[in-house]
Amino acid sequence: MDDMRHAVYPIALALTVLIPAPAQTTASASPNPVAKHPFTANDWATIRSASAIAVSPHGNSILYRVNFGAEKGQTNHEWHVIHPDGSDARKLDLPGDFTPSGFTVDGKALYGSYKLNNVPQFAIILLENINAKSTPITTVMLPRGIRGVVPSPDGSRFAILADPRPADERPEVRTLVEPDRTSIYVVKSDGTSGQWWCSSLKDVTGGIAPGGGNAAIAWAPDGGSLAVLSMTPKIGYQYVHSFIDVCYASGARRLAEIPNSAADIAWTNGGKDIAFLSTTTAVLTPDHVWTIAASGGKPVDRTPTLDATVVGLADDPRGHLWVQLNRGLQTEIDEFRDNALSPTFKWPDGFVSGPPVFSEYASGSDRLAFTVDDPQHASNVAVSESKQLHRITNEGEEQLAKIDLGPVRAVHWTSKDGIALEGMVTFPAGYIEGRKYPFLVLPHGGPEASDLLGFDPFSRMIAGLGYVVLQPEYRGSTGYGTKFLDAIYQHFGDRAFRDVDSATDFAVAQGWADPNRLAIFGWSAGGFLTSWTVTQTNRYRAAIEGAGITDWGSFMWTSDIQQIDYDGRWPDEFPEAFRKFSAVDFAAKVTTPLLILHGASDRRVPTYQGQEYYEVLAARDKTTRFVEYPGAPHFPILWEQRIDVFREIADWLKKYNS
User: Fold this and answer.
1) Sign of the alpha-carbon dihedral angle for 639, 645, 649, 650
2) Domain-located, residue 647
3) Does the predicted model carry a pTM greater than 0.90?
4) pLDDT in tens, 622-644
5) Which of 137, 234, 286, 569 has the greatest number of CB atoms lying within 10 Å of its CB?
């Protein structure tokens, strides 16, 4: 969903300050001090950020994307290139329907997707004299468009992920609900001689790793075959199995069937082995590095005692296997070699987002580029020099120079259950130690995810209202090892709830939180925790839930992705197990004013979940409000709706938690 006690008690803790409060600006320090203001929704809509996309074959150019919002409409995307030393940054004037994924082997063109009749197709566009009216020199037309493209190490071919079925004849009047299908279509570098490889593989997918990775195919070092990851689709199955194959033009060779989830796939040990992410947990979240011999054999967990979570991996054509590792509130990049992890790169005061990007060709440069983030800066592009990361872009700095940001700290405590927990606390600008502030606990979504030491817009906006905001890493979060992650299974409504509520106890005990001005807010899995919390305690004066699960029995079948990671039992056979944590069945206990926010076109947590809870609460004369955003998916994509989400939150807090 990419998801109480009243007594205040002393808590044993270890407090670590990772990001110190910024020095106060005084008139004597600067003759013309910049007038600053708290972070607002309008700042959120305009702040710019950058992320690394690709490295050119010669290593002298890095392609990156710049994102920023607006008063209305969807997020804007710009495409830029920059030299590794940070010089010669320039914006590319690309056609609006083209989304680049990388460079061609000669570095003279970009490949990616180009929308034709609103369907993304594979295309190549020359960089020379490129402009907004440029048209592709190569286009591959497939009936239902493409879902991903991977070039071979020598650059002679592209493997394209696509649905092999004919397009729907009447898409303007209907939507067919059917099992997903993805297969592999291979073309030469000029788009010719296309053919479907391994037609028996129809469910090719990289799964969903906690870090968002989904690499389903990887070319072998010699370019003659592909390692392929497939999984049972959501529709038609009540379980999840994964499959590892080696795919040739002539057909597929099955290596293993894994009775669990898997994500990302790559080659390692000089092409002798295939690496992927998988797990032994009931929550299905891939968290360890596994390998299997390319010649066949049994998959082996290479990180069985890991006290962190592997959230992504990628192999470069020079034989390196890069692994993104989540350790609590931070991530690091390790190299996997000799069947072990070796820490290599880290962004000290924040985190690295995703594995590095690199030239995709064997003849290319070994240059690495990264996306880095921290609480005081928007995400930006960094490069490696002597195993140190150096930021080379500065998107968002101009806006942030005008914003007064409070300190962010990593904090640790032990709950009443005896569970060691970590969280991230954001203080308002001008925070004074020892003063009590209105407080909001902000549980993350997922739930198999985590908050990271980055620039978090929601915590910053709420802190801008004068709040202390604490984001707890409750059981079920990534970054703390398999046992911690697996603890969520069949216990989302009790263990995770108690962990989140213990964060509020901790904030009160530290003297940050005014116990008479407590609030809770979360989206998705955090929305569930909010909707459930107000059935268990009345300690919070205000609550806001966005797109939260409130009725588990019906949710299990109606979400757009498999949700048995919470509970693998059949809802019709064990209805009480799913009713146990369904807030709609405990609405009579609610006394906290509850604001419910939901997208009208949400397929991850269908909209009826919010409306059902609202109507039950309203019928019982509870203080509640339901706001639905027309056309919005799981979280609104239109900026006028995003800004309104925060306005609703601010108004609700002002009305009920002042």
Assistant:
1) positive
2) yes
3) yes
4) 999 999 999 999 999 999 999 99
5) 286
Number of domains in the chain: 1
- The pairs formed by 616-622 with CB atoms below 8 angstroms and a separation of 24 or more are 616/584, 616/587, 617/587, 617/590, 620/587, 620/588, 620/590, 622/587, 622/590, 622/591, 622/594
* CA dist list (Å): 18 to 31, 115, 374, 412, 424: 30, 44, 10, 12, 10
Q: How many CB atoms neighbour CB 2 within 10 A?
A: 17
42-99, pLDDT tens digit by residue? 999 999 999 999 999 999 999 999 999 999 999 999 999 999 999 999 999 999 999 9
Single out the residue of 319, 145, 142, 158 nearest to residue 226, CA to CA.
Answer: 158
Integer-rounded Cα radius of gyration of the chain: 25
Cα end-to-end span (Å), the chain: 31
Residues in the chain: 658
Which residue range is the domain that position 537 belongs to? Answer: 13-19+400-656
| Residues forming a β-bridge with 161 | 148, 184
What is the mean pLDDT of the segment spanning 209-215?
59
Backbone phi and psi for residue 324, each to the nearest 5 degrees, phi listed first:
-90, 120
Confidence of residue 171 (pLDDT cuts 50, 70, 90): confident
Q: For residue 467, is it within any domain?
A: yes
Question: What percent of the chain lies above the pLDDT cut of 90?
Answer: 91
Q: Measured between alpha carbons, how far is 469 from 524 in angstroms, rounded to an integer?
A: 18
The reply to whether 528 falls in a domain is: yes
CB atoms within 10 A of CB 568: 16
Query: What is the spatial distance between Cα 178 and Cα 158, in angstroms, rounded to a whole number?
Result: 28
Task: Name the pairing type of β-strands 542-546 and 594-599.
Answer: parallel
Amino acid at 249: A
Interatomic CA distance for residues 612 and 623, integer angstroms: 15
Q: Which helix (H) or strand (E) holds 77?
A: strand 76-82
Please write the tens of the pLDDT for every residue from 326-354. Answer: 999 999 999 999 999 999 999 998 999 99
Domain assignment of residue 132, yes or no? no
Distance between CA atoms of residues 136 and 609, nearest Å = 44
Collapsing DSSP states into helix, strand and coil, what is residue 363? Answer: coil
Strand segments, DSSP code E, in 249-376 are: 251-258, 262-268, 273-278, 288-293, 300-301, 309-315, 321-327, 330-337, 340-346, 351-352, 357-358, 368-374
Residues 217, 184 contacting (CB under 8 angstroms): yes
Which pLDDT tens digit goes with each residue over 551-594?
999 999 999 999 999 999 999 999 999 999 999 999 999 999 99
Question: Which CATH number goes with the domain that contains 535?
Answer: 3.40.50.1820
pLDDT in tens, 224-270: 999 999 999 999 999 999 999 999 999 999 999 999 999 999 999 99
> What pLDDT sits at residue 203?
95
| Burial (CB count within 10 angstroms: exposed 0-12, middle 13-18, buried 19+), residue 457 | middle
What DSSP element (H or E) covers 643?
Answer: helix 639-656
